[in-house]
Design goal:
Mean pLDDT: 80
Distance between the termini: 63 Å
Strand content: 25-35%
Shape: globular
Number of helices: 11
Number of strands: 23
């Protein structure tokens, strides 16, 4: 009997499709059919891919986020600019390159392969990243850097009983990074979606410690499994956000998000939403600079509004090319749960400019689009493409305010609304557009950009 080289992966007889959602299965199976042979050959020529040291400083490994599914355990960490300089010896962040460390432990019965485009469709091969620092270096120095970058990279396959670690070089993100890890094998595929903070970023949610509270098993919560009772609880929430002492109403409470770090927030980040920074001196200086220059600032702080007697637990925004224009939302973790999932309530609106005001301590505020329903509806449509939205609905909220008789927020911006709140339910398993369901509460046309009377 011929002796089998343990470094050679067994070539699959067909592309893995088992366990894939129906709408992704066809795409991924075709993708794997095209690349599996290339991956296998590359892994074979590269030699055995075992665990290898990646840096003397294990700080990023100590804070790694770990997920387990089946016989696979995945750990990942996003490196700061300082860490990437220490590991790679060159300032990758200056070239907008961000290493993501990945470790995969395989306790299953087949070889797995990591698909790097899952982390970033525009990821950087080791040779391209090394060439970015060619400058006046000699040919020998460039070859040595190229070799080092390749040695640091994640190398397929992950054989049964093996643990493999290494880096994938992605495009730079500030604030948080959505890390999607797709692992494929013969007849099987596993996907891990991880929402991960970038070190050194002073996110506002860290101050509120909201995710720690969300995971507190002792926190008093009410879990609803009946849809009508859930609807009643959502409609019993306050109408609006307020000022600090609660004496004056502001923007309408028009958004409910059901989910957390496993599903809702990865979905938001995937669709281009960014967390906001605390209002510290560095962020304020950058915000003033961006306001004067008109440049983009995707993590710009937002002012505090209040619900449940506290400022927002976190805020997110989807910025355009200038700081003056953005969609933004403020969210509060409620004591409501829906089928065990955390329920966040908040407000979303679209900033369309800036103006002077005496109602802000900075004397400057963003001007909101008075049609606040537009931002709410746009979010629903946006999230439908996230692959994680599973159910949508509307409940009664602040009550209608027609364009002819608008209300005002705390900075005296007018707004008009149909008075409803969007309810968006997320799940970690991908869902096709055609499989998103609707709560049978209020006419569906009010959820999306559809004319009244149109059939869904």
């Amino acid at each position: 009997m011929a002796r089998t080289d343990p470094c050679l992966p067994r070539v699959p007889e067909k592309a893995p499709t088992e366990g894939l959602p129906a709408y992704r299965g066809g795409f991924l199976s075709r993708l794997v059919s095209l690349v599996m042979g290339i991956i296998v050959v590359t892994a074979t020529l590269g030699g055995c891919a075992g665990s290898k040291p990646t840096a003397s400083d294990p700080g990023y490994q100590e804070r790694a986020v770990t997920r387990t599914e089946g016989g696979l355990r995945v750990s990942t960490a996003v490196l700061s600019p300082e860490e990437s300089l220490a590991v790679y010896g060159v300032p990758l962040a200056d070239k907008n390159i961000q290493p993501v460390w990945i470790e995969v432990q395989n306790r299953e019965d087949r070889n797995y392969f990591l698909l790097s485009p899952g982390l970033d469709p525009n990821f950087f091969p080791a040779s391209e990243a090394a060439e970015a620092f060619a400058g006046n270096t000699s040919r020998d120095q460039l070859a040595e850097r190229d070799r080092r970058f390749r040695d640091l990279g994640f190398r397929n396959p992950i054989q049964p009983g093996q643990t493999v670690s290494g880096f994938v070089l992605t495009n730079l993100n500030e604030g948080v990074k959505f890390v999607q890890i797709d692992l494929v094998a013969k007849g099987r595929a596993r996907t891990f979606s991880i929402f991960e903070a970038v070190p050194g970023f002073q996110a506002d949610y860290k101050k509120s410690q909201v995710f720690k509270r969300a995971n507190d098993p002792q926190a008093p919560v009410v879990n609803y499994t009946d849809d009508e009772s859930f609807r009643a609880a959502l409609e019993a929430l306050p109408c609006c956000l307020t000022n600090e002492d609660g004496s004056k109403n502001g923007d309408p409470l028009n958004l409910v998000i059901v989910g957390g770090l496993e599903d809702a927030f990865p979905a938001l980040v995937r669709r281009g939403w960014s967390v906001t920074e605390e209002k510290w001196s560095g962020a304020i200086r950058r915000m003033v600079s961006a306001a004067l220059s008109g440049e983009r600032y995707v993590n710009a702080p937002v002012s505090d509004l209040y619900l449940f007697g506290r400022a927002q637990d976190l805020a997110l925004q989807k910025a355009r090319d200038t700081i003056h224009q953005r969609n933004h939302m403020r969210l509060w973790l409620s004591d409501i749960r829906y089928h065990g999932k955390p329920v966040w309530v908040g407000q979303i609106s679209r900033d369309i400019g800036v103006r002077l005001t005496i109602h802000s301590p900075t004397l400057v505020t963003h001007k909101i689009d008075p049609d606040v329903d537009e931002a709410r509806i746009a979010l629903t449509e946006d999230m439908a493409y996230s692959q994680n939205l599973v159910r949508i609905g509307l409940v009664n909220g602040v009550g209608a305010a027609p364009q002819s008789a608008p209300r005002e927020n705390l900075t005296t911006d007018p707004y008009y609304t149909d008075g409803y709140r969007d309810v968006l339910v997320f799940d970690r398993e991908p869902t096709a557009l055609s499989k998103i369901t609707v709560f049978p509460w209020i006419t569906p046309y009010k959820i999306l950009h559809v004319d009244p009377g149109a059939k869904p």
